[in-house]
Amino acid sequence: MSSDKINLDARTICDRQFNIDFKGYNMDEVDAFLDQVIADYESYEKMVQSLNEKISELERTNASLRAKLIEEEGKSRAMAANQQATAAQPAGSGTSVDILKRLSRLEEEVFSQKNSQE
After folding, report:
1. What value does the mean pLDDT of the chain take?
2. Domain residue spans in the chain?
3. Residues 6+ apart with CB under 8 A from 111
4. Number of C-alpha atoms within 13 angstroms, CB side, residue 113?
5. Long-range contacts formed by 32-40: CB under 8 A, 24+ apart
6. pLDDT band at 62 (very low <50, low <70, confident <90, very high)
């Protein structure tokens, strides 16, 4: 008899008939049957515990994946908002970095022209 397999169902237990002996039911037969019932309950308890552990593990994995999903959705929204802001800028305008680069180039040209005139 395997300890991880349930051998009896409710109907089998309910319908079980014992032979009547001189003093009543055969004690060895009843004891053997009750041993089988106990073994099934132990197997059932092990399966329930194992399944509860799997549920806990899956709930932790699910929570982790939900957190990652929320993070990715936030990044996606930020990127979309940034793209909309960039698209909404008038033609010829750029970000602050672009403006600073242009100013730097203009200053270089102005100073190089002043230096060449002197």
Report:
1. 81
2. 10-93
3. none
4. 6
5. 36/1, 36/7, 36/8, 37/8, 37/13, 39/1, 39/3, 39/7, 40/6, 40/7, 40/8
6. very high
